[in-house]
Design goal:
Elements lengths: L1 H16 L11 E2 L9 E7 L5 E7 L6 E7 L8 E4 L2 E4 L2 H6 L5 E5 L21 H6 L2 H16 L4 E11 L1 H12 L5 E5 L6 H10 L14 H17 L7 E2 L2 E2 H8 L3 H5 L5 E7 L8 H13 L4 E6 L16 H14 L5
Parallel strand pairs: 4-7, 4-8, 8-9, 9-12, 12-13
Antiparallel strand pairs: 1-2, 2-3, 3-7, 5-6, 10-11
């Protein structure tokens, strides 16, 4: 009798301690307590790392429409912020641009709570320990892929077309998601770089412009290159450390994002490609990488549309044309490209 009780206890413990998401990988479950006052419904799914991923879908979910995924750049912040009692979404422009034409899908970064934000928005220094551990290229891309795969199973998902858009750091994530999901038909990388980010850093250092990041360095190219290479070596000596920081991000993040690139990932996808870059981004130092990306994709026979926006900064704002909304214009351009007749 005692042995049977022990067996039952062990069996119960095994059930209770089993991976919670084992049966729910890539299956969407709608949150019955979705936040009020936002034009989205919140869902959850589990990814292949057994993490519960929170994501949000916009639009009338009785209408079958294509899925458009939007991925913002670096930092430990939520897709939503609270201002004067109202909840605002960071994807308002793309949500409006694609309104009525597609369901917008946005994914919260693992380790980031709803409405979480910090003064240094683009950095991770104030992020949670979970975020610092989870935010790698592989693990963040998997979270987005999990939400996308789960969404495609829902009845309002039109599976004929699928677009993934990423800005800045999100550009390489979008490229990775497109590479890992054959059903993605279109991918857009906006100011997402081309070769590994180290290429841009080396370009800056050799021109003596790395002071954009290293405020204490003189504009001596030899000193700047030496400092950069020393820092890279230090990161590579401890690549999985989530608690040591370089330029506001953990070593663990840098080592994973440096090991790939938007260019490398886009070469793996069969999706149609849209790339965009502003000539004033990083004082023009990202243009060579953009040209390398464009030329290489063309050389490999990729279907690629390129936009080099004169005078535009990292967010496609144009300093001498303050009345222009370059961000909205860019998303409108991506929308029109996405919905044009397929020429393949």
């Amino acid at each position: 009798m005692f042995a049977c009780r022990v067996c039952r206890f062990i069996l119960l413990a095994a059930v209770l301690l089993a991976p919670i998401g084992a049966q729910g990988i890539y299956e969407a479950v709608k949150d019955p307590q979705s936040p009020e006052g936002i034009p989205y419904a919140r869902y959850y799914t589990f990814d292949r790392f057994n993490r519960r991923i929170a994501f949000y879908i916009s639009g009338d979910q009785d209408e079958p429409l294509p899925i458009v995924v939007s991925i913002l750049g670096s930092g430990a912040y939520s897709n939503f912020v609270q201002r004067e009692g109202r909840i605002l979404d960071a994807h308002r422009i793309d949500r409006e641009v694609f309104g009525g034409k597609a369901h917008l899908l946005i994914v919260e970064k693992p380790g980031v709570a709803f409405l979480e934000e910090h003064p240094d928005r683009g950095l991770a220094t104030q992020g949670s320990p979970v975020f610092r551990r989870e935010h790698t290229l592989e693990r963040w891309s998997e979270a987005v892929s999990a939400a996308l795969r789960a969404t495609r199973r829902l009845p309002f998902a039109n599976r004929g077309r699928c677009l993934v858009i990423g800005h800045s750091e999100g550009g390489v994530v979008a490229a990775r998601v497109a590479a890992e999901n054959v059903f993605v038909t279109h991918v857009a990388s906006l100011a997402g770089g081309g070769p590994p980010l180290l290429f841009d850093f080396l370009e800056l250092a050799r021109a003596g412009h790395l002071g954009l990041y290293y405020k204490d360095l003189p504009s001596d190219p030899k000193l700047q290159v030496a400092r950069l290479l020393a820092d890279v070596a230090d990161i590579q000596s401890d690549p999985d450390n989530p608690d040591k920081f370089y330029l506001g991000h953990p070593y663990r993040r840098w080592s994973t994002f440096w090991s790939s690139s938007t260019l490398e990932e886009l070469l793996k996808t069969k999706a149609q490609i849209f790339i965009a870059q502003g000539t004033a981004d990083m004082k023009g130092k990202r243009v060579p990488g953009f040209d390398a990306l464009f030329a290489t994709l063309l050389g490999h026979g990729k279907q690629v549309t390129a936009r080099l926006v004169e005078g535009a900064d990292h967010g496609f704002g144009i300093a001498d044309q303050p009345n222009r909304d370059g961000w909205r214009e860019m998303f409108e351009d991506v929308r029109d490209w996405f919905f044009q007749p397929d020429v393949r």
